[in-house]
Amino acid sequence: MEEAYNPGLNNAVVATGECYEEIGRLYEEQPRLDWEHLADMMHDYKGLLSGWPQVLHLQSGSQGKRKEIENDGKVGQAEAAAVKTRTDTVNYALLAEVNTFHEQRVKDIKSSHQHFLQEQIKFYQKITEKLQETLRMYDQ
User: Fold this and answer.
1) Could you say which of 4, 6, 18, 135 has the lowest number of CB atoms within 10 Å?
2) CA-CA-CA-CA torsion sign (98, 100, 106, 112)
């Protein structure tokens, strides 16, 4: 027959409550370890992307000017060739920037998501360990 008062059981029940309080604190602290890093990266890219319309507008303007010069019979061949060279330089620079942007974006997103998932795994492992410790108290 079980005892009416079981100090081990009482301690285990108290420890269960404390365990869930600690898990609640872990949930409060967790965003700074994973979500904030991910959000910061996304915010940075939002800022980077906001500048692209102006860059594309400049490139489009240089293309328009090139076509205008090519269609204008009043402009000499030397000047038209110089405009073509400058326009090509703008186009190649833009392509290089787009390629670099995409390469870096892939690296950043991969790294940020890996960090996020690693921190999530650590977080849930901590919770599991705390629950297992508390569960073991019921066996004592």
Assistant:
1) 4
2) negative
Give the range among 3-12, 63-72, 82-91 with minimum mean pLDDT. Answer: 3-12
Rg over alpha carbons for the chain, rounded to the nearest Å, is: 31
Residue 2, sorted as left (phi over 0), alpha (psi -120 to 50) or beta, turns out to be: beta
Q: Which amino acid is at 68?
A: E
Determine the Cα–Cα distance for residues 81 and 12; give it in Å rounded to an integer: 85
Listing DSSP states for 71-96 in one string gives H-TTS-HHHHHHHHHHHHHHHHHHHH
Residue where the block lists tokens 């029940």: 13
The token pair that represents 54 in the structure block: 């102006």
- Helices and strands, counts by H and E, the chain: 4, 0
Give the integer Cα–Cα distance in Å for 17 and 15: 5
Residues 125 and 21 sit within 8 Å (Cβ to Cβ): no
Question: What confidence tens digit (pLDDT) does each residue in 18-29 have?
Answer: 999 999 999 999
Q: Answer whether 132's CB lies under 8 Å from 18's CB.
A: no
